[in-house]
Write a structure and sequence with these properties.
With 489 residues, the protein is α/β, with parallel strands linked by helices. The protein is built from 17 helices and twelve strands. The chain binds pyridoxal-5'-phosphate. Residues 102, 162-164, 167, 200, 202, 253, 257, 282, 284-285, 311, 321, 323 line the site of pyridoxal-5'-phosphate. InterPro entries: PyrdxlP-dep_de-COase (IPR002129), PyrdxlP-dep_Trfase (IPR015424), PyrdxlP-dep_Trfase_major (IPR015421).
Length: 489
């Protein structure tokens, strides 16, 4: 070897390890677009099981997880095989028979937003970590604020990872408002929260997390379907006052998870205004009806709220999670995380607000982008049509059920949630067994709720592919399931 060649070998730059290779990205993306495109197409057409549920032990084998973890070496070609199996073994939210939990059927533009986040990771809780991402979030929050009916100048909010965290965040804002020294001194022991028993589990959890204790959640009297009896609210407040307690906030559902029924926001909101109480509206699921003129009335009075939670990852078709905490006065959210809102923080040279000052989270995902892309692509009207369509299809299911003597329903739906059961299989164990039978059968995935003290099957119409003929097939399948479990009693 000549000295010259030796020298040039030494001078050659090392291969850049860990960098993205454009050709590898392109090959991987080709696999992704083909596989995921096929997956959505098949799912929408109702081919494939709506949900698979092998055990982790079986799945670990099917997916060769241990080998991949031990040996590595996946590339575009083996990704193709892995992804194919992975998608087979999950739950298809685009499937017409997907009628289970309140998870969005993700729309195409939102999925692109997730990809952009995955690539860029602009974790912009500090403005300098992603000016565009932060500005997009501010814009969609302003849009949501305007839909609630508040002025954008004084109202504000933040997007967080889920409705549960959004409820906790709202409770922190309520706490700072009712007990300004709680940030440094802790939650006072006389604090109570009034909520209907039908409220989401995260309200009680939130009460425990912020140091109120879940025993401090005082149930508001409700009708048989779990809706707040407005006339009783002032009495409950007075009874608490006489016991030396102080109401930190009053919570109402829009709509309740188990039933999809809306509380009378106007009624509860007026009482809160009269008594000077913080009014929190949990519109995680049902807030999206604000986009539909014909449905907006269900949320009449929402503008009386001090805080509102509204999930984009339910009816606005983004992936899990993207939840808005909206407050009537911006400053209430800033005070939740500091004893005094420190405006200096916003007046330095960063160029924009640090959203970290409004949320429990440290770094923040680019949650606004996926909602923004859905809005930009489909338009507010397009999203509204989707919501209206799912509510209408659920109502149609209820009409079909009501027309059949062999089914019963506990109430007329106000959203896309419908409860029902076959009359000849009314028992709790039968609802559970029918649901299991349907999941094993593979055409339908239902949930289940307790309403008026007894268990029902619950259908939540989320997928745009669920149509009239799906509903007829569903009733036939449930009849078949009822035959299977009839002897259980
Ligand atoms: C879904 C839901 C929540 C919780 O939202 P996650 O995003 O699942 O944490 C809270 N309240 C209501 C009324 C809901 O429907």
């Amino acid at each position: 070897m000549s000295p010259r060649r030796e020298m040039s070998a030494e001078a050659a730059p090392p291969e850049p390890r860990g960098q993205w290779v454009p050709a590898e990205w392109e090959a991987a993306m080709a696999v992704m677009t083909r596989r995921l495109g096929m997956y959505v197409d098949e799912s929408q057409r109702g081919t494939g099981r709506v949900t698979a549920r092998r055990t982790p032990a079986e799945l670990s084998d099917v997916l060769s997880l241990q080998r991949w973890i031990r040996e590595g070496g996946m590339d575009a070609r083996s990704l193709d095989d892995f992804l194919g199996r992975y998608l087979e073994e999950g739950t298809r939210l685009h499937h017409p028979g997907y009628l289970a939990h309140q998870c969005a059927c993700p729309d195409l533009p939102a999925a692109l937003g997730d990809l952009v986040h995955g690539v860029t990771n602009n974790a912009m809780s500090l403005y300098e970590m992603g000016a565009a991402a932060a500005t997009v979030e501010l814009a969609v929050v302003d849009w949501m604020v305007s839909k609630v009916g508040w002025p954008e100048q004084s109202a504000g909010g933040v997007l967080v990872n889920g409705g549960s965290l959004a409820n906790v965040t709202s409770l922190l804002a309520a706490r700072a408002w009712a007990f300004p020294s709680a940030w440094s001194e802790g939650t006072p022991s006389q604090a109570v929260l009034l909520a209907p028993v039908s409220c989401h589990v995260s309200v009680k959890r939130g009460a425990a997390i912020i140091g109120l204790g879940c025993d401090a959640v005082v149930p508001l009297p409700c009708d048989a379907l779990g809706r707040i009896i407005v006339e009783s609210v002032a009495d409950v407040v007075e009874a608490q006052r006489r016991r030396g307690r102080k109401v930190m906030a009053v919570v109402a559902n829009a709509c309740a998870s188990a039933t999809g029924l809306y509380d009378d926001l106007q009624g509860v909101g007026r009482v809160c205004r009269e008594l000077g109480l913080w009014f929190h509206v949990d519109a995680a699921h049902g807030g999206s009806a604000l986009l539909v003129p014909a449905l907006r009335g269900r949320l009449a009075g929402i503008e009386l709220a001090d805080s509102v939670v509204w999930d984009a990852h339910k009816m606005l078709r983004t992936s899990t999670l993207a939840a808005a905490v909206l407050v009537r006065r911006k400053v209430d959210l800033e005070r939740a995380f500091r004893q005094e809102a420190d405006y200096l923080f916003f007046e330095d040279e960063r160029g924009g607000p640090d959203l970290m000052m409004r949320t429990v989270e440290g770094a923040k995902a680019q949650l606004g982008l996926k909602l923004f892309l859905n809005l930009a692509w489909r338009g507010e009207a397009g999203l509204g049509e989707y919501v209206a369509g799912r509510y209408a299809t659920a109502h149609r299911l209820w009409e079909l059920l009501r027309a059949r003597p062999d089914f019963e329903t506990p109430y007329e739906p106000q959203s896309n949630v419908v409860c029902f059961r076959p009359r000849d299989a009314p028992h709790e164990r039968q609802q559970i067994a029918m649901r299991d039978w349907l999941i094993a059968d593979g055409r339908f995935h239902l949930a289940s709720s307790v309403v008026e003290g007894t268990r029902w099957l619950r259908a939540t119409v989320m997928s745009p592919s669920t149509e009239e003929r799906t509903l007829h097939a569903l009733l036939d399948a449930v009849r078949e399931a009822a035959r299977q479990v009839r002897d259980m009693g």
